[in-house]
Structures are given as C-alpha cells and as structure tokens.
Amino acid sequence: MTLDLAFFAAAIPAVLISAASKGGFGGGAGFASAPLLALAMPPAQAVGLLLPLLMLMDLISLPPYWRKWEWRHSLLLMAGGIPGTLLGWWVFGKISPDGVRLFIGLTALGFVLFQIARSRGWLKPPDSDPGAAKGLLWGTITGFTSFVSHAGGPPASMYLLGLKLDKATFQASTVLVFWWINLIKVPAYIEVGMLNRGLLVPILILAPIAVAGVFAGVWAHTRVSDRFFFALTYVLLAVTGAKLVWDALI
C-alpha cells in the first residue's frame, strides 16, 4: 500500500465522517467512509482498513451512551447479525475485486435513494413494534451489508425508527449493535485477508483522527444542526457510488 497524497485525501475525510457519525453527529452518514476510501485503494483493503478504526470508535462511543440503549430490540438485531455476517463471509469468498467494488457502489447509490425516499415519506418505518421475527430479519440484513461495506446503518435504522425512540436511545442502540457486529467480523476479515499486517501502519496513523472525530461527534450531537452534514454526505455518496460502479463495469 502506498501512503501518498491521494490515499490521505480520501482516508482522512472518510475516517472523520465515520467517527463523527459514531459520536452521534450525522446519523448513518458514516456509511460514506467505505465508498470514499475505495476510490484510493482496493475495495477489500478499504473495508478491512476501516474495521479496526470502527472498533476503536465503538470503544470510545460506548461510555457516553452506556445503558441508554433499548435492550430487547438491540439484542434482536445483534442476534440476527450473526447469520448475516456468516452470509457476507460466504459471499465475499465468491466475488472478484470488481464485484466488491460494484456492490459497494450500488449500495452507496441505494443509500442515497433510501434517504430521499424516507425524507419524502415514500418509505416509512412501521407504526408499531415490528416484533422479534422482523428484528432478526433486519439484523441479518444489517450483518450482511455491514460485512461487505460497513453499510449496516440503513437496515438497522429502518427497524429502530419504528420503535419511536428518543435521539439518545436510538444512538445508544446503534452504538451497541455495531460494536457487536464489528467484533464478530474480525475472524472472518482475517481469514479472507481483508485484515492483515500490511494495514497496521495506516491504521496507527489514522487512529488519532478517529478518536478526535468521535469526541467531535459527541460534542456536536446536541449542539449543531446536522442538515448540512447530511446534504454534503449524500452528494459525496452519490458521486463516489457512481464512480465505483463505473470502475467496476468498464
């Protein structure tokens, strides 16, 4: 891996966006990190590089939201995340680097469409408790999309939003769920080679940025409007998603 200007131009914003989102600012905008980083390095390496940084962010994010989560539904998502992770592990072993690039790009574009549909009222979470079966289903989808491109935010949000949780409880629940899902991804990432010693130096370089970004996100969670942050992230996702799809197909 070459640690050049192009790498850091993609990696630093990617880590900051993800870290701020983990801290509670910008909601699920952290999904932009993998597509952005995949522009500067092989997609599998990009996803692998982000995992230890996300786990570091998880450890920092847990204390401010400790025990503020909604236990029952968080556990359902966490249980569903296990088969979802196993499915992602199996699928990843079957697709080429361009296949990974295409999946990340299409998921990025799908995320933008998902947010547009939700903001326009075309897609609404259920009005009542979605129940255990749906919790496990959404957890499986969350685990699968999180494995391939750290894109578990939208399915987890669709399930949790139906519970009408307050902002702090919703954020605490997502922090807990993704702490668990990121943890169980580690053995699989090592086995398929997405996480290896060659990533150690860039991980160590980017770790302080991840820590600073989480604290900034926690501070901004209740103090700063995230409307502009969302808009910028969606534009970024649309552009990077389209670029990844184009690169995969040509």
List its traits.
250 residues; mainly alpha; 74% helix
Describe the structure.
With 250 residues, this protein is mainly alpha-helical. It has one domain (5-249). The chain has helices spanning 5-22, 33-37, 43-61, 71-92, 97-119, 131-149, 153-161, 167-192, 200-220, 227-249. The longest helix has 26 residues, at 167-192. The chain is globular and about 50 Å long. The two termini are 24 Å apart.
How large is the count of helical segments? 10
Order of helices and strands: HHHHHHHHHH
The description of the largest β-sheet is: none
Head-to-tail CA distance between termini: 24 Å
> Beta-strand level of the residues, as a percent range?
under 5%
| Shape assignment | globular
Query: What ranges have pLDDT less than 50 throughout 5 or more consecutive residues?
Result: none
Secondary structural class? mainly alpha
Helicity, as a percent range: over 70%
Radius of gyration: 17 Å
What's the mean pLDDT score?
Answer: 82
Number of domains: 1
Let me know the number of strands. Answer: 0
